[in-house]
Amino acid sequence: MHSGAAYNVRMIAAPRCELSVDDIRLGDVAFWTLPDADREGAFALLRRERPVSWHEEFEYPGLPKGPGFWSVTRWEDVWTVSRTPDLFVSGQGSNIGDLPIELLEFFGSMINMDAPRHTKLRLLVNKGFTPRTVARVEEMVRERARRIVDAVAPRGACDFVSEIAAALPLEIICEMLGIPADDYRRIFELTNTILGVGDPEYATTIEELMAAGMELFQYAQNLGRERLERPRDDITSTLMHAEVDGERLSEQEFGSFFILLVVAGNETTRNAISHGMKALTDWPDERRRWQANYERYRASAVEEIVRWATPVIHFRRTATRDTVLGGQEIKAGDKVVMWYNSANRDEAKFPDPYRFDIAREPNEHIGFGAGGPHFCLGANLARREIAVMFEELLRRLPDIEITAAPDMLLSAFIHGIKRMPCRFSAL
Ligand code: HEM
Predict the structure, then answer these.
(1) Is it the case that residue 1 has pLDDT exceeding 50?
(2) How far does the chain reach from its first CA to its final CA, in angstroms?
(3) What is the mean predicted confidence (pLDDT) over 11-36?
(4) Which single residue of 125, 131, 303, 419 has CA 20 to 30 Å from 406?
(5) Whole-angstrom Cα distance, residue 323 to residue 272?
(6) Summary count for the chain: helices (H), strands (E)
(7) What distance in angstroms lies between residue 62's CA and the mean position of ligand 1's atoms?
(8) What is the pLDDT of residues 313-357, one digit of tens each?
C-alpha cells in the first residue's frame, strides 16, 4: 500500500445552510459556485419549507431574461411531473433558458419533443439499442475498461477524470456510432463545450455553443450519408436504415440525435464514475464491503453511485394547463423544473439520504429520470459501464483513492467534476 497523508474531506458529510428560504436563488450563478454541502443544505430547506418555489432566471449576456420558473424539490412531486407528459410537456424546452424552437430540436432532438413525434423517433432509435447491440457492447466495455486500467497501472497516479472516468464512455459511444478512433478527441472537446456552457473554461458565448453544435452536426451528416450508402456493423448504419411506418430518419434528424447521443453518452456516465470513486474514498467501510464481495453488491452499488452522483441536476417541463403541484398553484405556460439532485436526497423517500450505502434497498432514485416517455435511453449501457469500470479498478488497483478535492464544473445542469487526482500502488 502507498503511504502519505490521507485525504479526508467528505464532499457531503453534513449539509449546511446559512441562507434563509427567501434568499435561496436557484437562478443565480453564484448559487452554483457554492460547495456541494451548502447547496445540499439549501435544497433540504426548500424541501422542508417551500417544496415548490418560484425563482428568477439566469441572466445571459445578450439574451433577454426569461420569465422565471417553478422549482420542484420533493421526490413525490418530481415523479408526478415526469409521469404526466400531457400536462408537463418537453417541446418548449428541457433546460431553464428559452431557445427558439429550431435550436431546441437542433441541440436536443427527442429530449425536446412530445408525442406523437417523440414516440415515433424513440421507436426508431430503439432499433439501434436492441439486445444484440447491447450484448456486443458489453464485451467491448470489458475490453476497453481493461485497456484503460492497463494504461495507467504502471504510473501509480493520474488524473482520475480524464484518464479513467471520461475515457470509457467516450470510447464506447464513439465506437457504437462507428466514429474512427482518430476523431474521438475532437468529439470529446465538442461535447465538453456544449455541456460546459457557463463555465469559462469551456465556452462563454452562444456563438461558441453554436459553433460546437454545428461542427458535430456536420460531422454526423457526413457519417450518416456514408453509412446510408455503405452500411457497416454500427448503430449509425442501423439508424440510417431503420423505418417506422415506412419513414426513415432524415439527415437532419440523425444529426440532432447524434448530438444528443454523444453529449448524453459522454458527459453523464463519466461523472457517475468520478463521483463514485470519490464516494468510495470518502466511505472506506463501504469500499471494503464492496471489495470483499463484488458480485453481491454490484447492482445495488451501481444504483447508489447514480443516486449519489446525480450527474444530471435538472430537466424542465412547461405546464399546458393551470394545475396544483405540491400545494402550489401553477399556471398554463409556466416553466416547471425538476431538481433530481434534491429528489435523490429527499428524506421522505431515502432514510439517511446523505449516507453513501452500497446496499441501499429499496433505492428508487431518479438519476435516470423519474419515468415517463423520456426515461434515459442509455440507462442500461451506463449501468454496465459503471459496474465494469469499478470491477476492473477495485480488483486491479485495490488501493486506488482520490487525493485532493475535485475541481467542479460550474453548472446548474451537469454535476460535473473536471479534474481530480488519484493514486494507487503501481503495477
Ligand atoms: C449515469 C449516466 C446517465 C445519466 C445519469 C443519465 C440521465 C438521463 C436523464 C435524467 C434523462 C432524462 C429523463 C427524463 O426526462 O425522464 C436522460 C435521457 C436520455 N439519455 Fe441518459 N443518462 C445517462 C447515460 C446515458 C447514456 C450512456 C446514453 C447514450 C447511450 C444516454 C442517452 C439518453 C437519451 C438519448 C435520452 C433522451 C431520451 C428521450 O428523450 O426519450 N444517457 N438521461
Answers:
(1) no
(2) 11
(3) 87
(4) 303
(5) 35
(6) 16, 12
(7) 30
(8) 999 999 999 999 999 999 999 999 999 999 999 999 999 999 999
Percent of the chain with pLDDT over 90: 77
Exposure of 32 in the CB half-sphere (CA atoms within 13 A): 19
What is residue 256's three-state secondary structure?
Answer: helix
Ligand 1 atom closest to Cα of residue 271: 1
Q: How many angstroms separate the alpha carbon of residue 111 from the centre of ligand 1?
A: 9
Per-residue pLDDT tens for 81-135? 999 999 999 999 999 998 888 788 888 899 999 999 999 999 989 888 877 787 7
Distance 427 CA to ligand 1 centre (A): 36
Question: Torsions phi, psi of 131, nearest 5?
Answer: -55, -35
pLDDT of residue 203: 65
Cis before 362? omega within 30: yes
Q: For ligand 1, which residues put their CB under 6 angstroms from it?
A: 82, 110-111, 122, 173, 260-261, 264-265, 268-269, 272, 306, 311-312, 315, 367-369, 372, 374-378, 381-382
pLDDT digits (tens, 9 = 90+) for 161-181: 999 999 999 999 999 999 999
Which residue, 379, 242, 241, 253, is CA-closest to 306?
379
The ligand 1 atom nearest the CA atom of 113: 40
The 8-class DSSP code of residue 412 comes to S
CA 63 to ligand 1 centroid distance, Å: 28
User: What is the CA(368)–ligand 1 centre distance, in A?
Assistant: 6
* DSSP code per residue over 45-73: HHHHH-SEEEEPPP--TTS-----EEEE-
Give me ligand 1 centre to Cα 22, in Å: 33
**pTM, whole model, 2 decimals?**
0.95
Question: Which residue is closest in CA terms to ligand 1's atom 28?
Answer: 378
Mean pLDDT of 277-285: 96
- What DSSP string describes 367-408? TT-SSSTT--TTHHHHHHHHHHHHHHHHHHSTT-EE-S--EE
Nearest CA to ligand 1 atom 7: 368
Q: In one letter, which amino acid is 92?
A: Q
Q: Please report where in the chains the cell 453513501 appears, as a residue.
A: 356
Q: Is the pLDDT score of 8 beyond 60?
A: no
